[in-house]
Amino acid sequence: xxxxxxxxxxxxxxxxxxxxxxxxxxxxxxxxxxxxxxxxxxxxxxxxxxxxxxxxxxxxxxxxxxxxxxxxxxxxxxxxxxxxxxxxxxxxxxxxxxxxxxxxxxxxxxxxxxxxxxxxxxxxxxxxxxxxxxxxxxxxxxxxxxxxxxxxxxxxxxxxxxxxxxxxxxxxxxxxxxxxxxxxxxxxxxxxxxxxxxxxxxxxxxxxxxxxxxxxxxxxxxxxxxxxxxxxxxxxxxxxxxxxxxxxxxxxxxxxxxxxxxxxxxxxxxxxxxxxxxxxxxxxxxxxxxxxxxxxxxxxxxxxxxxxxxxxxxxxxxxxxxxxxxxxxxxxxxxxxxxxxxxxxxxxxxxxxxxxxxxxxxxxxxxxxxxxxxxxxxxxxxxxxxxxxxxxxxxx
Amino acid sequence: xxxxxxxxxxxxxxxxxxxxxxxxxxxxxxxxxxxxxxxxxxxxxxxxxxxxxxxxxxxxxxxxxxxxxxxxxxxxxxxxxxxxxxxxxxxxxxxxxxxxxxxxxxxxxxxxxxxxxxxxxxxxxxxxxxxxxxxxxxxxxxxxxxxxxxxxxxxxxxxxxxxxxxxxxxxxxxxxxxxxxxxxxxxxxxxxxxxxxxxxxxxxxxxxxxxxxxxxxxxxxxxxxxxxxxxxxxxxxxxxxxxxxxxxxxxxxxxxxxxxxxxxxxxxxxxxxxxxxxxxxxxxxxxxxxxxxxxxxxxxxxxxxxxxxxxxxxxxxxxxxxxxxxxxxxxxxxxxxxxxxxxxxxxxxxxxxxxxxxxxxxxxxxxxxxxxxxxxxxxxxxxxxxxxxxxxxxxxxxxxxxxxxxxxxxxxxxxxxxxxxxxxxxxxxxxxxxxxxxxxxxxxxxxxxxxxxxxxxxxxxxxxxxxxxxxxxxxxxxxxxxxxxxxxxxxxxxxxxxxxxxxxxxxxxxxxxxxxxxxxxxxxxxxxxxxxxxxxxxxxxxxxxxxxxxxxxxxxxxxxxxxxxxxxxxxxxxxxxxxxxxxxxxxxxxxxxxxxxxxxxxxxxxxxxxxxxxxxxxxxxxxxxxxxxxxxxxxxxxxxxxxxxx
Amino acid sequence: xxxxxxxxxxxxxxxxxxxxxxxxxxxxxxxxxxxxxxxxxxxxxxxxxxxxxxxxxxxxxxxxxxxxxxxxxxxxxxxxxxxxxxxxxxxxxxxxxxxxxxxxxxxxxxxxxxxxxxxxxxxxxxxxxxxxxxxxxxxxxxxxxxxxxxxxxxxxxxxxxxxxxxxxxxxxxxx
Lengths: 396, 646, 175
Known about the structure:
The structure holds 3 protein chains of 3 kinds.
Chain A: H1 9-13, H2 16-24, H3 28-38, H4 50-59, E1 66-71, H5 80-87, H6 89-103, E2 107-112, H7 120-132, E3 148-153, H8 163-170, E4 194-198, H9 199-211, H10 213-217, E5 227-234, E6 240-245, E7 248-249, H11 250-257, E8 264-267, E9 273-276, E10 283-284, E11 294-298, H12 304-318, H13 324-341, H14 347-363, H15 367-371, H16 374-382, H17 384-387
Parallel strand pairs in A: 1-2, 1-4, 2-3, 5-11
Antiparallel strand pairs in A: 5-6, 7-10, 8-9, 8-11
Helix pairs in contact in A: 2-6, 2-9, 3-4, 3-6, 5-6, 6-9, 12-13, 13-14, 14-16
Chain B: H1 4-10, H2 29-32, E1 35-40, E2 43-48, H3 53-59, E3 83-86, E4 93-94, E5 105-107, H4 111-125, H5 142-149, E6 174-176, H6 186-194, E7 201-203, E8 210-212, H7 229-233, E9 239-241, H8 245-252, E10 258-263, H9 265-268, H10 284-293, E11 298-301, H11 303-325, E12 335-336, H12 341-350, H13 364-380, E13 387-393, H14 397-401, E14 417-420, H15 421-430, H16 452-455, H17 462-476, H18 480-483, E15 498-504, H19 513-516, E16 533-540, H20 542-553, E17 563-567, H21 585-601, H22 611-619, H23 628-634
Parallel strand pairs in B: 1-5, 10-11, 10-13, 12-17, 13-14, 16-17
Antiparallel strand pairs in B: 1-2, 3-4, 3-5, 6-9, 7-8, 15-16
Helix pairs in contact in B: 11-13, 11-17
Chain C: H1 3-20, H2 27-38, H3 43-53, H4 57-66, E1 78-83, H5 86-90, H6 93-104, E2 117-122, E3 134-136, E4 139-141, H7 146-158, H8 162-173
Helix pairs in contact in C: 1-2, 1-3, 2-3, 3-4, 6-7
């Protein structure tokens, strides 16, 4: 097995047409079975088994279903989907078409974040080519299966990367996550059964169809199969998109990207965790440090309190504002960081803020709120000495 | 399908994230019973699939605290106060929004749950400005009760010491104080989903999230219909009614003023709730004594002008029908009732092209004001400038109505103050009056006599029932008691959103004297109504009003109606925006029972039999119903406002 | 707004609603068109859209205020959005930000008097490996230095439409 390291190595080798043709030659249940055998998990970060999601949607009774591609890549430090869409869009579109065949949908929508508007034109052109080639349309590859894909633009809201918020946004509402259940596979876009998957997940689907589940499952670890794209940025010599098998130790990743002297790495973006140097031996995979692929390297001179502040500013701005823990809690954490900066935060209040962070993880309505205190909590945990004991502001 | 499915169908406008749940249930639900066993704090209970954790817990007496949840509204799941631990779930679940579909074990007060609730509450209190002492909801505030229930003993995240928002006191009816808002969005769901008026919505996001009107304009400048349903559902003091009690006290204490009060039927059935009595305890006669005790010079019954309204509106309907059926002239039919000021403003904003359908008859409140400052002033030789008329109403929109510039038929402001049930209860408390213990006394003459028909104005369907009683008797000459048991016209009663009924006119009598008083009456026999069937409809809540109007515009079944009753508030007046808080379907049903019980107790139950009304026509409104004087004093015009805001 | 301007706005909205369909799910696409052409979504525009889609104006207002790329107030012809999230922050976004303010003579959240430029912050725009990065309308400019700020602004000033910026950007992105 040869997994190249920088860029879209595996994906460039995959022939999207072969993947689609292989899928359409099978029955829907067989497509789902193949994904299940490959043990593919969602690439957006939550890591839900794709086979399970698709089989639920396939079982849901409805004459209309939808395939949604989540291209609202807003997690700080993540840009792999941008590169996939720019370089191998056909892999994604083929994956969505396969999804349509698997669950019985004839309509796909790519929800492309507004910040990537410059990608829309090339993607529309790619879709036009696929329609001309019979890979989309009334009779996909000459079969009775009809499927087409539409691109809809986001308008600048990180929370729309949450699948039910994405659906709300598509329906013309504020991007506010829904109560679950019901899950989108039962009642999603316009109340119909809907699968929402990440850009990379669809690309993986096409790859699995083209090369088979055993090939995919052989890469990575037992529970985290397949290649994974990583967006690497921050204090390293060679930032960019990398492809690694799941299960790679953090230290090895840092060696590849030229960030050996890092004092910490943020894995999973703003909603992920801050891993200190002492834990660089841990592996990146669903059973280890789970991530959608964002890796931000912090060099030895970085002020971790400033990092935490940046993350909290992000969440204060990007919270949808509907549930109390996330709306008010993030603002309180940010306020607490300002107090730490000014040397006005007692150890007792810091403990209070930590408790608040745990409550936010437990009681928030959606994944955004539940993960928003992660960065703060892990920085407080691992860099306690660094963030405490600052100069008292009035004494300056 | 669970009950929640209906919420989806019934309220297409509700933000989807705030709608009820679609729960996948086995097809053979009824056959199998589709019950599921859950354990709540170790207590086992069987509930139908799709029941929420909150409902299941209530069923067995486990009280889970709630804040954004309201019985009348779709589920939001945003405050997170009601979170509980579900075994096997990593995170806590909002019990109001979690439908049970499989056997689960639930814990409602573990350490995690308690700690979360306390901190969520602390977060809310950290943004809630206002001292409880200086708040009209003191003692009746859900946030206050929650803080007490959860044992809040300090402000973990601080407490604002200065206001962050300006008070919006632009509206005659509704006050908004965003300093007290905790963003539960009940008002949003009330305004957009329950009432479909669409004044309040959540705007901005993150920590800038707030509830706002369109472009954050003052309430007076937007399309608010003043129904006050948001006030009734606000858990805190962020929404309230514009309170005139200081002015009322001042006038009561001014010896040069003759202060009279008219009391509408709905407040009597509810004011007891402010004194700890169960909903549906009528205190009509105790209230009369209390009103005199605090200094009102006269206490009148709005039912008197409710009867007057029925005669004026009924006559108008008969005249419209005659013009349509006999003269074959284009006439706006069906005729719409006009006694609900929230509804009147709704149609002015949203369906101005349909204003000709609206009866020109004023509401009972405004008729009373006009009659007091003319007829009553003359009778007692009081300068109308010295008379202060106060109207005790269940309704916040009445405050706006009495301030309409056209409501000055007497040459003075016909009704000076609209006082709502809650405010009067507060006045009683301030005066140290324990209302339930007051002696009973009647209303003052000359308007003391009222009929049961006036009383039932307080419930949805009441106006229609009263009108039918009168019209049926006037046209047929038969006693309505002989047509319906106890004169109860049941097809128009009840809480369904839209009710439709066909009432056959059993036979034709002679045209009665009261109508003949009108010299312009274009007929002298009922022959033109031979074989006619009256088609009527009743609706309450402006969301239902919208459905009715759209059906009429589309030429549906309701366009064939002759007469339709509209009430802006769910339940009619007894669910009005000035009524005691809280409100829910059971409370409104209890109030309705009290109102119908009072109706049944009246000796005279039909408006046209009210001797005081007949005397008024004989002595004062000599042109008869719809005659010249009646038109000048008892009828009004409307303003096509439209919904565009400059 | 002049009557003729309002008329033009109403006609445009009618066309867009017809294209996307008179459904709630068309709301955001219609608003995006209004934003692109008029650089703001005025209160009148919101009411017209609400009328077409049979929703309340306050619901449109609610949606407009939710999304960062939809604005009820006037925005310049060129909206500059500088990424402020962590990778761009570490790559030196603060100096670029100050230079943008210096060159334009406005602070973040403001527009220039001539109506040409608006300056705003953006949350992560997905150029973390090439920060600091900014967006000018739909176009992305990676690895911006204080030095380059002037060039970017000049490109905007000289362009008669979005095309020139687009081409310039392509050169930039392919470095």
